[in-house]
Design goal:
Blueprint (H helix, E strand, L loop, with lengths): L6 H5 L1 H14 L5 H21 L4 H16 L7 H13 L6 H18 L4 H16 L2 H11 L5 H25 L6 H4 L1 H21 L1 H15 L8 H18 L2 H9 L15 H11 L9 H15 L8 H19 L5 H17 L1 H7 L4 H6 L8 H8 L1 H12 L1 H4 L6 H18 L4 H22 L42 H13 L1 H14 L2 H17 L2 H23 L15 H15 L5 H11 L8 H17 L1 H17 L9 H15 L16 H18 L5 H21 L23 H10 L7 H17 L1 H4 L3 H10 L6 H17 L2 H6 L1 H9 L9 H16 L1 H5 L4 H22 L1 H7 L23 H4 L19 H11 L34 H17 L5 E2 L5 E2 L37 H8 L18 H7 L4 H8 L1 E2 L5 E2 L38 H34 L2 H4 L1
Antiparallel strand pairs: 1-2, 3-4
Helix pairs in contact: 2-4, 3-4, 3-5, 4-5, 4-6, 5-6, 5-7, 6-9, 8-9, 11-12, 11-13, 12-13, 12-15, 13-16, 16-18, 17-18, 18-19, 18-21, 21-22, 24-26, 25-26, 25-28, 27-28, 28-30, 29-30, 30-32, 32-34, 33-34, 34-35, 34-36, 35-36, 36-37, 36-38, 38-41, 41-44, 46-47
GO cellular component, one term: nucleus
InterPro entries: ARM-like, ARM-type_fold, HEAT_RRP12, HEAT_RRP12_N, RRP12
Family: Belongs to the RRP12 family.
Length: about 1250
């Protein structure tokens, strides 16, 4: 070192190089303490040599080597000022253009930084490196801008500056590759510098990959090994920038050939080989996989985004390369699923789910399931943990798996059918099922149906065994057999499986064990179901509500207490907030968009919860809904009556204490009852009437109005009158319910109080035999009869309709009352109220159908006399109604008997109807049998051979009291297609305009309507077994009467011989041709084959298409030749009238209308049409090229030009004529 201090040694490059080489070999063997003591002086000497011989590469390289060793042994306690000159010299030559010098400087700089690790001087060294990066890295951009602004003379210098700046940047980046991991302090925390470096690396590799893909792939691991550790940087901006750069490098630098080469290469290096021989793509994957180590746990969210991009780049071909990484991501997802069960959410869970989703989408479900099998069987056996967390991801990201998952969940109700392992399986999977129900609205339907099955089946078995310890109604509301509203229909198939007979293995002991399991989870499931019901849509409530009802039916009252109290409290609060002037701050918003919808929602919820409530809770619920029964909102009142009807029908324990109050509420609510709520109100009335008719009524208390049987019967009469009025309600479903309730009530009263029905006396009172108690049906009939003296026509008409329904149902029991009842009903035909007339006609139609033929014969005259009053009134279709009844009477009593009481003007058409009836019978039974019967076969039928009463079918109020008799089946007899129109016309001509039987059948065209019809043309009920037998008998008779003429083989199969005729080309006659409508190219297919059709069309229209183009001599001839000679075929004449254009297209150019030479304008000549020109569309006119369009328009331009010229000439002549005076114009 003392020799290097001499001037002559420093001045000579050879001597300086020799001493530096010797010093470089000696310094590693010198003790550190000696070097540390002499480090300051040694640094000054070596820096002086470097500054003096910076041109000599050998001296400079050896001096840098010695300076690096000296700097590594310097005293760090001396401060940065002593180390700064040496460190700056090493840093300055780290980007030198000479490779050996640059490499030696970088090695010496790395050695010095390793010495400074953990010392305060590392911060200063890092700042110095950051300063150099800030000066060098922006150099290419600045040089490029300067070159863009330079003149042409300075352009070479500017380009050289760009080259030097780029070289310096690349050299510095090469140094940073080894130096950057050793830095710390402000340099690493400076996000701007790191992002600049990252962006530079990203852009460089992307451009390299575009220029040379193989080189880009080969060098890509170096970039990933440098940038991947930065994903764990402290700054969030750095992590995001680096992850974005890595994703861009994966997307732009990995071709498909590299993936194929990596697959075919060795999976692991052989023993003793270095990792450098690993395929570059495998090295990239290893770099990213190392970032998923536990020490980088804080960086997993960012790393997983890069991993997702890697999965996307690999695709299905590269799935085998990332199996290890896929397993690590699966472990993270499993941990995230366990954390989610413990209500612990983390950022890693979302990133891992996205990465796994990318793997499913791009690698394919097969590859994912190969690396991460579900292990469902092992999970059930308890040997391994099942990967159930993978199912939702497969559904979300794979279409096939999505359909598979839907099928698996759709089979959930099937697994709930009489299960034996519910005690263990439900406890194990209840949490997962609940999470799926809460988070997946699309799975709520099968889950609700499955839970409903479990509850109903368990209750059914225990109830059958008499061991049900719970309380509540026996039939919870909302099960499929009780759903009757449109909005309550389940979207899925009806669950009849839960109502089947229990199998032998499902014993009461199994049911008890299942009941205990279900009750244990009731406190968790009921709030979950309640929230889904309240916040769900109307469609979702349709299947969640029955599930709540079934679960509540097996739950203990203590479990239902809290949900019930919340429901009632919310219901009261909604009503209170709706009545308040100002909206409340804590107003209820769930359950609907307005207060009415919310009240309906919570009323439904209370209905479903009522199946498990005790008597005290039902009493509270009754008090809550009592004021709602007076509401004017139809939807709210309907829900309230529905709830009350369920309580009245199912909770006899409640009625035993509060029956008197319920009756009082029903009687008081009669004026306020709305039409929409009456159907459910009728259910309440049925229960109340049956209880009021009992000798001892429970729950009456001290109410005077129900103290005696007479007073109770008055209340019953009041309630029955409401039922009678409901048969004429506007709501169809209410009318149907009223008729059903009336008949059900009659059957119940007849069963409870059986007694024979006596006859009526002259005062329309039922004469009760002495010593005989009045029967139930008699009491009801008396109540309905009281409506005939009602104060309003509406009440009278409703009473008549109710009597008709009772007569229809109990014809055999009420036929004794017909002689006394008919005169009273017939007297109503003289009323001025058309409403009463309509109901009386319906009653008479029932009488004609259901009374015995003998009684009809006795009362035929008064019935027909009453009907003839409205025989000529066509308003409200009374005339047609009367005709229907007359025809039915004629079939029951005979045409001869009816004709005796029919006016003379209607007897002729009655005979016509009889003939058509006979014709119809002949058509059914065969022509031979009809001829043998004779003309008077219908009247020869005696009363003894006729049926005593008509066959009773299902009641159809719409057919009995309908305004349109087209569906009644008795308006007219069925006419044959051959004679129907002629017979109708003849009948119309022979009868008067006001005749009852005037006019043709209202269903004349129904024969060909394509429907399956009964006799009388009523649509058949194909579910009726009796009708099926009738059709079978009718079909056998029809086949026997009308055999076919087809030849049959030994197997009774028809042999059909096709008549194949040669197609002859029509010959054209001279001067004529085929009819234009019969030609192959005719546009009038509907006129083809009709003689003279084209001639008629030609005479009626002035169209060119129908104009005659042949000579007049061809129009004569016989009828046989008229079709060929009437019109000349357009195809034959067009050849002579069409000219060929330049494009080869045939067109009517209008040349035949051209005048002779010297004359102006057009002339008709021998043609009968006005002059015209037709130019067909040329497809070249649609061509995009202008020259093609120009050629196509060449011929059309001539035609348009000629017509324009003629039009202008005519316009000028007309103008000249109007300007000249009349004399001059002549």
């Amino acid at each position: 070192m003392s020799s290097l201090e001499r001037v002559e040694v420093q001045a000579s490059p050879e001597m300086a190089a020799a001493f530096c080489r010797l010093l470089a070999h000696i310094m590693p063997r010198i003790p550190d303490l000696t070097l540390k003591a002499k480090s300051a002086a040694s640094s000054q000497i070596l820096c002086a040599i470097i500054a003096r011989h910076h041109v000599e590469g050998t001296v400079l390289r050896l001096a840098l080597q010695c300076l690096g060793a000296n700097t590594a042994a310097m005293d760090v306690t001396a401060g940065w000022l002593q180390a700064a000159p040496a460190f700056s010299a090493l840093l300055g030559y780290a980007g030198d253009a000479r490779p050996k010098v640059r490499r030696q400087a970088q090695q010496s700089l790395t050695r010095a930084l390793c010495t400074l690790q953990g010392t305060p001087l590392l911060l200063n060294a890092s700042d110095a490196i950051a300063s150099v990066c800030g000066q060098v890295l922006p150099g290419p951009e600045a040089a490029a801008r300067a070159a863009a602004a330079a003149s042409n003379k300075k352009r070479p210098a500017a380009e050289a500056a760009i080259t030097k700046a780029v070289q310096d940047t690349l050299h510095l980046l090469g140094a940073l590759k080894t130096v950057l991991p050793l830095l710390s302090g402000p340099a690493v925390r400076d996000a701007v510098i790191l992002l600049s470096l990252t962006h530079t690396v990203e852009c460089g590799f992307l451009r390299l990959s575009k220029a040379d893909q193989e080189a880009g792939v080969r060098l890509l691991p170096s970039a990933f090994h440098v940038l991947a550790p930065l994903l764990a940087a402290e700054q969030e901006g750095v992590r995001f920038g680096v992850s974005q750069a890595l994703r861009n490098l994966l997307a732009g630098c990995i071709p498909a050939a590299a993936i194929s080469a990596a697959i075919t290469s060795r999976h692991t290096p052989s023993k003793g080989s270095s990792t450098k021989k690993m395929h570059p793509l495998r090295s990239v994957i290893a770099a990213l996989q190392s970032m998923l180590a536990p020490r980088h746990q804080h960086a997993w969210p960012v790393v997983l985004t890069v991993v997702a991009e890697l999965f996307a780049c690999m695709g299905r071909p590269g799935a085998s390369l990332v199996e290890g990484m896929l397993a690590q991501v699966g472990s993270l997802c499993a941990g995230a699923a366990e954390a989610a069960e413990a209500d612990e959410c983390s950022e890693v869970a979302g990133a891992a789910a996205k990465a796994m989703g990318a793997a499913i989408q791009h690698l394919g479900p097969e590859a994912v399931l190969h690396s991460l099998p579900l292990d469902l069987q092992q999970g059930l056996e308890g040997t391994e943990e099942a990967r159930t967390w993978l199912l939702p991801m497969l559904r979300q990201h794979a279409l096939q798996c999505r359909a598979l998952e839907a099928q698996l969940w759709a089979s959930f109700p099937a697994f709930c059918l009489w299960p034996l392992d519910l005690h263990d399986a439900f406890r194990q999977h209840a949490r997962d099922i609940g999470a799926a129900f809460e988070k997946r609205p699309d799975l709520r339907s099968p889950i609700s149906l499955g839970l409903q099955r479990l509850c109903l089946q368990t209750r059914q078995v225990l109830q059958s065994a008499g061991e049900l310890s719970g309380v509540g109604s026996t039939n919870p509301p909302g099960i499929p057999d009780q759903i009757d509203d449109e909005e309550e229909q389940l979207p899925s198939a009806e669950d009849h499986a839960s109502q089947q007979e229990a199998p032998a293995h499902f014993t009461p002991d199994v049911a008890k064990r299942n009941l205990a399991t279900l009750r244990a989870f009731a406190k968790n499931w009921l709030p979950l179901l309640r929230n889904a019901f309240v916040n769900g849509s109307v469609e979702e409530r349709a299947y969640i509500g029955p599930c709540i009802s079934a679960y509540a039916a097996i739950s203990e009252p203590q479990t239902l207490a809290e949900p019930f109290r919340n429901t009632v409290r919310t219901l009261i609060k909604i009503a209170t907030d709706a009545a308040a002037e100002l909206p409340a701050a804590d107003a209820v918003t769930a359950g609907g968009e307005n207060a009415s919808e919310r009240r309906c929602t919570f009323l439904d919820l209370a209905l479903y919860l009522s199946s498990g409530l005790d008597a005290s809770a039902i009493a509270i619920l009754y008090k809550a809904i009592k004021p709602i029964l007076q509401e004017r909102d139809q939807a709210v009142q309907k829900k309230a009556y529905k709830l009350l009807a369920h309580v009245c029908e199912q909770r006899q324990d409640f009625l035993a204490e509060h029956f008197g109050d319920v009756v009082e509420v029903l009687v008081a609510g009669m004026p306020a009852a709305l039409s929409a709520a009456k159907r459910h109100r009728l259910r309440c009335l049925q229960v109340s009437i049956l209880l009021l008719l009992q000798p001892e009524v429970p729950g009456v208390g001290g109410r005077q109005e129900l103290s005696t049987p007479e007073k109770r019967q008055q209340v019953v009469s009041t309630l029955v009158s409401e039922i009678i009025l409901c048969v004429k309600e506007v709501n169809r479903r209410t009318r149907v319910a009223a008729f059903e309730l009336l008949i059900g009530l009659a059957h119940a009263m007849d069963t409870t109080y059986p007694a024979p029905l006596p006859s009526l006396d002259a005062s329309m009172e039922v004469a009760e035999p002495e010593g005989q108690k009045q029967g139930g049906l008699q009491m009801l009939f008396t109540m309905v009869l009281g409506g005939l003296v009602g104060a309003t026509p509406h009440m009278v008409a409703a009473s008549v309709m109710a009597l008709a329904r009772l007569m229809y149902e109990f014809a055999s029991q009420l036929e004794a009352l017909a002689p006394q009842l008919l005169p009273v009903i017939l007297s109503l035909l003289r009323s001025k109220s058309r409403e009463i007339i309509k109901s009386v006609l319906g009653f008479l139609k029932v009488v004609a159908m259901r009374l015995p033929a003998a009684q009809l014969d006795q009362n035929l005259k008064p019935i027909l006399e009453g009907l003839m009053i409205w025989a000529h009134d066509s308003k409200n279709k009374f005339k047609l109604k009367v005709r229907v009844i007359v025809e039915r009477l004629a079939r029951r009593c005979g045409f001869q008997a009816v004709s005796q009481h029919i006016p003379e003007q209607d007897r002729k058409l009655l005979a016509h109807i009889r003939k058509e009836k006979q014709r119809h019978e002949r058509k059914r039974q065969g022509a031979s049998e009809a001829d043998a019967m004779g003309v008077d076969g219908a009247d020869t039928k005696s009363a003894a051979t006729r049926a005593r009463t008509a066959a009773r079918s299902e009641w159809q109020a719409s057919q009995v009291f309908s305004d349109d008799e087209e569906g009644a089946g008795d308006a007219a007899t069925v006419r044959s297609d051959r004679t129907g129109a002629k017979s109708t016309a003849g009948a119309r001509g022979k009868s008067t305009a006001g005749s009852i039987l005037d006019g043709k059948s209202r269903r004349g065209g129904s024969q060909g309507a394509g429907r399956v019809m009964q006799e009388g043309e009523e649509p058949m009920d194909l579910l009726d077994s009796g009708l099926a037998r009738k059709m079978a008998r009718t079909g056998q008779a029809g086949h026997a009467a009308e055999p076919d003429d087809f030849e049959r083989d030994a197997g009774n199969r028809m042999i059909i011989k096709e008549d194949v005729r040669p197609v002859l080309k029509p010959k054209r006659k001279r001067g004529g041709g085929l009819d234009a409508a019969d030609s192959e190219d005719s546009d009038f297919d509907d006129l083809r084959g009709i003689h003279g059709a084209t001639a008629a069309a030609r005479d009626a229209a002035k169209s060119v298409r129908f104009a005659a183009s042949g000579p007049a001599s061809n129009r004569g001839g016989t009828a046989a030749s008229s079709r060929a000679g009437t019109m000349v075929s357009r195809r034959s004449k067009a050849r002579s009238q069409m000219s060929v254009g330049s494009a080869g297209n045939k067109s009517h150019s209008g040349s035949r209308f051209k005048a002779k030479k010297g004359a102006g304008g057009d002339t008709k000549g021998s043609s009968k049409v006005e002059p015209y020109a037709y130019w067909p569309m040329d497809r070249r006119m649609l061509n995009r090229r202008p020259d093609k369009k120009r050629e196509a328009r060449a011929g059309l331009a001539g035609v348009v030009k000629g017509s324009t010229k003629a039009a202008n000439k005519a316009s000028r002549a007309k103008r000249r004529k109007t300007i000249l005076p009349p004399a001059a114009s002549l």
